[in-house]
Amino acid sequence: MSAMLRTAGFVALVVSAVLIGEQHPGFAQSTSFDDTARFLAGMPPSEGSALAPLTQDPAWQQHARYFNSAFGNVDKNQFSKVRAWSSAKLTTPHQVLFYFFSGPDFLYANAFFPNASTYVMVGLEPVGPVPDLLRLPRGSLDDALRHIEGSLSTILTISFFKTHDMRMTLGASSVSGTLPILYVFLARSGKTIHDVTLIKLDDQGVPQPESAPSPPGMKNPAHGVKIVFTDESGREKTLYYFGANVAGAGFKSSGLEKFCDRLGSGDAFVKSASYLLHGNGFTDVRNFLLQHATLVLQDDTGIPVSYLSSDKWDLRPFGRYTGPITMFARNYQPRLTQLFQSGAEPLSFGLGYQWRVLGSNLLLATRTGGGTEPNPNQAGASLDGKPLASTNPDDSQPSSVAPAPANPAPKKTSKKAQRQQRANNTVVQQPSFWPFFWGRRY
């Protein structure tokens, strides 16, 4: 009975807000993108927002208390340490961050790379519609808040999304897709959202309105969202999230390769990525990062260390590499074990599939003088169809050609010795979780 009364009260507040908007159109227009983000994040919207009456409902207040506690705890125990580490170790950040296989994980992108001005994130899950909370069916908003809470449970505890949970929670909600999650993460990170535009890429990698027709012959353009926001200091930034399958030829055929190429060089971040960059199915993505990234921060699911040659990259290991979890055992890297044994720096936080502190690893790869020389004038290049001219010596090389694994092969050891070496370095394996890819796996 109490649950029925709470639902009835929430419906009454939704109806009253809608009626207010109908009677006072100017009032309804004050429901901004930022107000919606703050409401979904359990934070009060601006004064005069049409969503303000809904914050009096006990269900929303319970939602706000839950998120206040959850985000407060994760900031204290995790992100404060990540920010401190980033400030000390990532001392030459760039304007662009490429975060492939990210899902809607803006939390870690912002914590590690707070100084970026353009964030490019790519995952399988579609963006979904722009949330219009006042137009939702009666009684559905309370359910949507519960689904958002459920969808964030793992990233707030073990640093990545679980595929099945995300599919079952957001997929069944009236507020669907990645956009509500991005809203929550932006609001809880202290950002102010100013504009949200649904987009898709044309065959030149130029963003077009979602409603625009696709070029003839382009079957699977990347669909996404462009979010313009300001940080705590008032600096304007842009977040692009694309829901696209970049396996095989997908990175090129979707327009994403040309889109990213227009941005020039930048930093790259890879975490909990199912070891996709280890195989041949994502050669184009791997090559793009090797040619365009000036810095790569990754756990062991990122670019295999054999591609990061010592004449082009300075490698700094952090934490402890104990090999992959059981379901990805075939992706063990003997060379990465040697690198970490040669002297890894401590890591005070955990992340990735080996999410406990004593089992987590990060590799910071910084480009040195060899190989591709990024063009600093290209960062932040125009995306309106007029790319800046490149002076990178390797830009003429076709990105479809995979670089040969670098570094001389290590001295061979017997299988028995390798097994013993792994046993000596292995801590207790954590439970195997599906990675962040929501709707389906590559």
List keywords for this structure.
single chain; 442 residues; alpha/beta; ten-stranded mixed beta sheet; 13 helices; 32% helix; 15% strand; disordered C terminus
What order do the helices and strands come in, and which of them pair?
Elements (H helix, E strand, L loop, with lengths): L1 H22 L1 H4 L4 H8 L17 H32 L6 E5 L5 H7 L5 E6 L16 H12 L11 H8 L8 H10 L3 E10 L5 E3 L13 E8 L5 E8 L6 H4 L2 H7 L3 E5 L12 H10 E6 L14 E7 L14 H8 L19 E7 L47 H11 L17
Parallel strand pairs: 1-2, 1-7, 2-6, 7-8
Antiparallel strand pairs: 3-4, 3-5, 5-6, 8-10, 9-10
Helix pairs in contact: 3-8, 4-6, 6-7
Can you walk through the features of this model?
The protein is 32% helix and 15% strand. The chain is α/β, with parallel strands linked by helices and 442 residues long. It has one domain. It has a ten-stranded mixed sheet, sandwiched between helices. A hairpin with a 5-residue loop joins strand 3 and strand 4. The two termini are 45 Å apart.
